[in-house]
Design brief:
Elements: H1 14-34, H2 38-41, E1 86-87, E2 98-99, H3 101-109, H4 118-135, E3 139-141, E4 148-150, H5 163-166, E5 186-193, H6 205-217, H7 234-243, E6 245-249, H8 264-267, H9 278-300, E7 306-310, E8 315-319, E9 330-334, H10 338-346, H11 354-370, H12 373-398, H13 402-407, H14 418-425, H15 427-430, E10 440-443, H16 446-456, E11 473-476, E12 484-487, E13 489-499, E14 502-515, H17 517-530, E15 534-541, H18 553-557, H19 571-577, E16 590-594, E17 597-601
């Protein structure tokens, strides 16, 4: 063909192009089957069609021929990311100098289909990278570990280290091995756990007897941190029966004597032979007085840690010295009325209203923070003069209202009587009645005076109603004179709970009765070992006793450095109850343990 204008020497006819493609396909197929010397001359043996992507080892494609190499890929992308894991050294000026052990093993054992070993190709890549490093300031791995990024010259050394070395260490949440002390009485506990709780009910006769005996002798069997099979552990079942024991006076099997506040429905329809028999009432009160005196003697001798007195209108908590952060015997009464507080003052009992005092202190701090120095001085002067001013105002109010005569309206305005004026003065004090803010705290030797006051106070026993003539209920974790041993009721049930789209078996145990603080802690300690540190509990509080966690300002700074080892409590429970409670006027409602770490809600 003669050369013409516009003719391109590289132009080929379509038929020639198809003939060359068929010829190339046959030659490639022959090379791949024989694996002869022509394998090293193949320019497309180690071509990566897409970057990053797997190498095509001369596989025949449906379209004929091998797909071309990606022109945008760098030489670094022609190897697998696992094969180019390089470690950069800060002191090396010529780039990477080492490879991992895995890379060296792969280099010595594998070769590319093109005939060149992987070590040779890595050497070529490293030579080119050294040239790039000499022209650049610093190299670091990018996020996808496929390309290099250029950094400034003053980049610190840690950026050149491997990612695990500079990754922030994962900080595990702190483990809480104890929950705050809760001095409120509980009426019901509901424990749930992924593991079965069937071991908690139907104890054998020997196990029950062992638990009662250990309780009377204050012996505690040590248990391992985690039990493999709780149902076959006799020590665990005996310890559980031991934790359910409490002592009560009086004991009337046909009448539930706890709770006593707003419990008229529990006494309805029950036989009360003492209601109209005055001699029987005196006999009951005489025995009750002996039991109360015995309890206080044990408390003073540190042989009983605490006890509760539950009447029809209030609950009294007596604590031994060293408990609740106090170095002396303390007593808390909730709720109270103005009549009770006035009667205590008349008998010379000194007490404090911690919640009222705390509110007053907070108001004073707010007032002082919002006023200047001059206003503070004026307030102090007014406070010093206030008693005289109050007396003058009282004299005016109790007087003849002479100012009305001066205005000439004495006949048109009705003069308030003395009863109305007295109620107006006593309004703030009366408004506290039957509220949590009315909680009263008595400390030190005044608690003994309080015991004598309670024995002789007529308002302690109901004069009318379903509880008329019935002495208050005494509850204690230790035996005392006239007390009867009782056990909490425990009932185990296996339930199925829906978790997502499936149902999961959950073990549960319900404990009912007057649950003391030490019993709650002992039960949770046993469940921690039996349930491998995974359980949750719902707590139902006797509402009037929720404010028993309140402590005075003097109790916050004093520690319980008093020996209470002979009081009959488990050492772990005793250690918890010695600390001041941080719950304030609230109580715990939920306790959750996960991986031997406590979480709670109030």
């Amino acid at each position: 063909m003669s050369q013409q204008d516009g003719y391109s020497p590289s132009f080929k006819r379509p038929a020639d192009v198809m003939r060359m493609r068929r010829k190339r396909t046959r030659s490639d197929a022959g090379v791949s089957s024989t694996g002869g010397p022509g394998q090293s001359d193949s320019p497309r043996a180690c071509v990566r069609p897409f970057s990053p992507g797997p190498l095509f080892h001369n596989q025949n494609r449906s379209g004929g021929g091998t797909k071309r190499r990606n022109p945008f890929a760098n030489i670094e992308n022609t190897f697998s990311p696992k094969k180019k894991c390089l470690i950069y050294n800060d002191d090396a000026a010529d780039g990477p100098t080492m490879r991992t052990r895995t890379e060296e093993e792969d280099t010595s054992s594998k070769e590319c289909p093109g005939g060149l070993s992987l070590s040779a190709r890595l050497a070529e890549a490293e030579t080119q990278e050294r040239q790039d490093v000499s022209s650049k300031d610093c190299l670091t791995f990018s996020e996808d570990d496929s390309l290099f990024e250029e950094e400034e010259k003053d980049v610190s050394g840690p950026l050149l280290k491997s990612p695990p070395a500079i990754a922030p260490a994962s900080i595990a949440p702190p483990m809480c091995t104890e929950y705050p002390a809760d001095w409120s009485l509980k009426t019901r506990l509901l424990f749930t756990s992924p593991l079965t709780l069937s071991w908690a009910e139907h104890p054998k006769a020997q196990e029950e007897a062992s638990g009662l005996s250990h309780h009377c002798r204050a012996r505690f069997s040590p248990l391992p941190h985690s039990l493999q099979d709780p149902r076959s552990c006799s020590e665990l079942r005996s310890a559980f029966q031991q934790s359910l024991v409490y002592w009560q006076h009086p004991s009337l099997p046909w009448i539930p004597l706890f709770p006593r506040i707003n419990a008229e429905r529990s006494f309805a329809g029950r036989s009360t032979p003492w209601a109209q028999d005055r001699a029987l009432q005196q006999s009951l009160m005489s025995e009750w007085s002996v039991s109360l005196s015995s309890l206080y003697s044990l408390l003073k001798a540190r042989l009983c840690p605490y006890f509760y007195l539950c009447s029809h209108q209030s609950t009294v908590l007596f604590r031994a010295a060293g408990l609740g952060g106090s170095s002396s015997i303390t007593a808390s009464i909730s709720p109270t009325t103005r009549g009770l507080r006035e009667a205590m003052k008349a008998d010379g009992i000194e007490f404090s209203l911690p919640l009222v005092e705390e509110r007053r202190r907070s108001r004073e701090q707010q007032n002082l923070s919002g006023q200047g120095e001059e206003e503070e001085q004026e307030c102090s002067e007014l406070n010093e003069e206030s008693p005289a001013g109050d007396e003058e105002e009282n004299d005016d109010e109790d007087g003849s209202f002479s100012w009305l005569k001066e205005m000439g309206v004495q006949d048109k305005i009705k003069k308030p009587d003395s009863i109305t004026m007295q109620l107006r003065k006593e309004g703030p004090a009366v408004s506290l009645d039957h509220r949590p803010e009315s909680v009263v705290c008595v400390e030190g030797p005044h608690t003994f005076t309080l015991i004598n006051f309670l024995i002789s106070w007529k308002g302690l026993v109901a004069a009318a109603g379903s509880q008329a003539g019935l002495p208050p209920t005494l509850l204690a974790p230790s035996a005392f004179r006239g007390a009867t041993m009782h056990t909490l009721k425990a009932r185990s049930v296996n339930v199925r709970s829906q978790v997502g789209s499936s149902y999961q078996s959950i073990g549960s145990v319900e404990v009912t009765g007057p649950i003391l603080p030490s019993s709650l802690h002992t039960i949770t300690t046993l469940l921690r070992s039996a349930q491998k540190g995974n359980f949750s509990a719902a707590l139902y509080t006797h509402t009037p006793t929720a404010v028993m966690n309140t402590h005075t300002a003097e109790q916050q700074g004093t520690g319980g450095a008093v020996d209470l080892s002979a009081c009959g409590l488990h050492p772990a429970s005793l250690q918890q109850l010695q600390q001041p409670s941080s719950l304030g006027k609230t109580a715990l409602t939920h306790i959750n343990m996960s991986n031997y770490s406590y979480m709670w809600k109030k």
